[in-house]
Amino acid sequence: MKSAVVVFPGSNRERDMVAAIEKITGHRPVTVWHGDHDLPKVDLIVIPGGFSYGDYLRSGAIAAREPIMGAIAREAERGVAVLGVCNGFQILCEAGLLPGVLMRNAGLKFICKEVELRVETTASQFTRGYAKGQVIRSPVAHGDGNYRTDDETLARLKGEDRIAFRYVANPNGSVDDIAGVLSEKRNILGMMPHPENLIEPLNGGTDGRPLFEAALSAVA
Amino acid sequence: MLQNDTPITPELVASHGLKPDEYQRILDLIGRVPTLTELGIFSAMWNEHCSYKSSKKWLRTLPTTGPRVICGPGENAGVVDIDDGQAIIFKMESHNHPSFIEPYQGAATGVGGILRDVFTMGARPVAAMNALRFGSPDHPKTRHLVSGVVSGVGGYGNSFGVPTVGGEVNFHERYNGNILVNAFAAGLADADKIFYSKAEGVGLPVVYLGSKTGRDGVGGATMASAEFDESIEEKRPTVQVGDPFGEKLLLEACLELMKTGAVIAIQDMGAAGLTCSAVEMGAKGDLGIELDLDKVPCREANMTAYEMMLSESQERMLMVLRPEQEKEAEAIFHKWGLDFAIVGWTTDDLRFRILHKGAVVADLPIKELGDEAPEYDRPFVRRPVPAVLKAEDVAEPNDYAEALLKLVSSPDMASRRWVWEQYDHLIQGNTAQKPGGDAAVIRVEGHDRKGLAFTLDVSPRYCEADPFEGGKQAIAECWRNLSAVGAEPLAATDNLNFGNPEKPEIMGQLVGAIEGIGAACRALDFPIVSGNVSLYNETNGVGILPTPAIGGVGLLPDIDVMATVAFKHAGDVIVQIGRDGHHLGQSVYLREILGREEGAPPPVDLAEERRTGDFVRGIIRSRLVTACHDISDGGLLVALAEMAMARGLGASVKVPESAATPHGFLFGEDQARYVVTVDPSVLDAVTAAAAEAGVEARVLGTVGGEVLDVADIATISVAKLKQGHENWFPEFMAAAE
């Protein structure tokens, strides 16, 4: 039930993520600094949202080359669950741990609103708490959420059932309405929406909870 | 590049915005001709922005204290007690001129500046808002300015990580050449861990923190002369460039450093950067400051002392630290990748001494720089208030339904969703009431139910017609919006935007508005704890509408009982709290439907305002209310339409026969009024309580259906209203340039 939240300079939803995980599981995640070379033994590593390094150069590009990313790649290889939300998704793509890139929203504007997501696969420890085809609500808050891959990669993602969530109404121009994708071994999830901001009645709903509950109860 | 011994000519003095008599005051004060750097320092300290020389006399009349006020005006922001050993720290500040020149960076650095004001005091920012005023939608620059300002506000706040939860956007041709960007920020701190700018102790290190100093913004405010200097002439933007990433690092580093106990005094570098911040810290602590500019981290080579002292580079702080904790402090800043440099010392000689390349380039009396700034009692005239326009003398609409649709789809009344969806209003996970209601509400971190409410308000058209009543109304509406969600209004911040105070009629507006604000604050026990004055908002001799924007903060002990504007259940009874409407002078109806901006604004009876607001807050807290909305722009019918659109649920109401005129009843903007909905089972209790409180309560009808129906007067589908209401902004912004 242990988890770690990785903090880069410019991360800004790490406090949301820490609070959400603590509220849902009763265990406070450890926060890990970007300059560290090692991770504590945990069951879930989260790269939270934000603007690491100001999104300068490209969103996630500088963070993806930080020392801690080597440790994350090693842990992921061992099968530890890794969740990247928003900027975390961008970092995972830039680090090559997930395929594709996240470009500027098609409308060229930052978008903060609640959207609907369709759960496309339950075959992952992040999504097994939902039903396949279930429509859940989730806030988005991003300027660079337009997910893109080449055709070959897209075909692979589809063929291997690695599309975790699709937008019901595409807010940012993502190819094939993709909101979140899984790694080949299915233990890395990257997603633009923020499940951590919809976990209690104050947020107007709790549709984000099953993701964390499943991710943190998956490990025996 | 001008040297420090450049001869001080009358032209050079004038180009620094100093009047001949102000220059004489400098000569008398220091007994010699100032150096160039000294002239720059005086111009920075004595300009309107830093010295409040035209407004100070009147600002002093405002109530600034109260049982919950921990720190009023004079520090970086106001500090107010919110129980449990916690404090809310907030302020609003303008960035009008830069935003007109370069809308994205102007607005972004406006947000950056106000956030810094808040975290300088030890608070983590938890909410931001902004009051934006643009020219007519038809004006060729308006779209460009709206687009740039909104992305700039979002670009900074979203990256920094503060939820932008509310604000105002208005359009009027009087802002065509001079838009207003007023940014508000609030932060949370422990009440016993507030940091101030007053330095204490002699011989202590003065530390520079944050980003490097560049030539950006040098003399942005005080220098415009072409013949002054070749190097400054090379079209450098006078607008600073914001780095929200740098600011986020600065926030985290400052809060981490503050926890160590190393910080004695702290001041952010805002307007006139190093000059204002150093003088502030020294003068407040009765200490001198000596700065060695060779130690200042610079972004560019060969900067002169003059440039360094006047640079407005962003994301910088000045601190006085405990020397024994210097290493600890340095380690924290280096961890966050920020510059840390000891650039000077506190002294006991009350001088502000600047060293550069081994020479003393400025040596001035530090107290007098602030205390002896000129102060003006500017002549003013009060323009006669226009006569009250009787509803009987205002035409009824041909079609009430069409008129309502036109009102809710008009530029000033249409939904602002296009704006606030570009702002991250959810970050931090505490947003309990999103933009679009009467006030935004956030949960106080660490508490399950305690919340804070925030709103920004002013009706410039009222202030133009009658500055005194308009000033009162701005406070009253702010107080009312907080009450309408169930919050106890705590305190306010004011951002006074006016034209040229050297014109007696403009000065009259400023004086009238401040008097009105003061009267309302006193009557409502709603002190002003911080603020900002922005004058000279004029283009081609035409001033803006007088715009004293008010930001208010309220406390909710239990967010479970807060009210929202949306109708909740079919069958709920709709009750108007307060008197019947009839006042159409300066109303949105008059302007949008009849094309007239006339008459006196609605007067505010402050005793009635208080009685009504206290009553409404009481019934919300007693869980008797299912929805609540204040009645303001557009009057009762617009308020009902907004409640209907918020839920997609209609209502049937009736204009009472006793109403003198139906359009006065439906569109009048009389003050101190609310609409609430209640379950039928508690209606009698509510009306009885109202009678006991001496507040009028009139049953208007019931919630339900898909149309808004005013018996025998108007029927219109809620969906159609919503379509018009939601579409105006995106369609306006998408229209071909």
TrEMBL record, chain A:
Give the annotated active site: 86 (nucleophile), 194, 196
Would the keyword Cell cycle turn up in this protein's UniProt record? Answer: no
Q: Where in the cell is it found?
A: Cytoplasm
Superkingdom field: Bacteria
Q: What keyword terms does UniProt attach to this protein?
A: ATP-binding, Cytoplasm, Glutamine amidotransferase, Hydrolase, Ligase, Nucleotide-binding, Purine biosynthesis
Chief location category: cytoplasm
In alphabetical order, the GO MF annotations are: glutaminase activity; phosphoribosylformylglycinamidine synthase activity
Metabolic or biological pathway: Purine metabolism; IMP biosynthesis via de novo pathway; 5-amino-1-(5-phospho-D-ribosyl)imidazole from N(2)-formyl-N(1)-(5-phospho-D-ribosyl)glycinamide: step 1/2
Q: Name one Pfam family in it.
A: GATase_5
Q: Briefly state the protein's biological role.
A: Part of the phosphoribosylformylglycinamidine synthase complex involved in the purines biosynthetic pathway. Catalyzes the ATP-dependent conversion of formylglycinamide ribonucleotide (FGAR) and glutamine to yield formylglycinamidine ribonucleotide (FGAM) and glutamate. The FGAM synthase complex is composed of three subunits. PurQ produces an ammonia molecule by converting glutamine to glutamate. PurL transfers the ammonia molecule to FGAR to form FGAM in an ATP-dependent manner.
Q: What is this protein called?
A: Phosphoribosylformylglycinamidine synthase subunit PurQ
Species of the source: Kaistia defluvii
Q: What is the lineage of its organism?
A: Bacteria, Pseudomonadati, Pseudomonadota, Alphaproteobacteria, Hyphomicrobiales
